[in-house]
């Protein structure tokens, strides 16, 4: 297990987390020091696009003051990655802090993956992760792709005392990370 994986497992202390890391379901670049996005009344949504796809997240902050909230999210694989895919995919999502999971098997690589994580509380840090596995052909070389992402976030209602809403602007772009790994056939 790598230094980053060891620190993550130690910080959360979860057997489920250890299994996630051992299976490689969370992207390797989802490091412990990854920044987080803070959902606020004035900024209840998030969207980032990178070379692997587009991730969105949103929370109804005004409608859930004083009680847990759902964090709705979506992920769509980029056209460039879809272009190398040769088959359907299986996608699995999970959460480092909450008992949440989502799995879709045998779906098209163009699938608009969306779900909702319940019971998010204010002033806590969370990490959602996901991974899609599918066959690819890159320049005549067949293989299996594993596209993983992670999203670190918290909720701040603007009422409670919190350090969660501080200095978000400098590190905002790194609260989402994705990684595409391809294992080519022998």
From TrEMBL:
Signal peptide feature range: 1-30
Highest taxon in the source lineage: Bacteria
Keyword set, alphabetical order: Signal
Protein name in UniProt: Uncharacterized protein
Organism per entry: Streptomyces vastus
Organism classification: Bacteria, Bacillati, Actinomycetota, Actinomycetes, Kitasatosporales
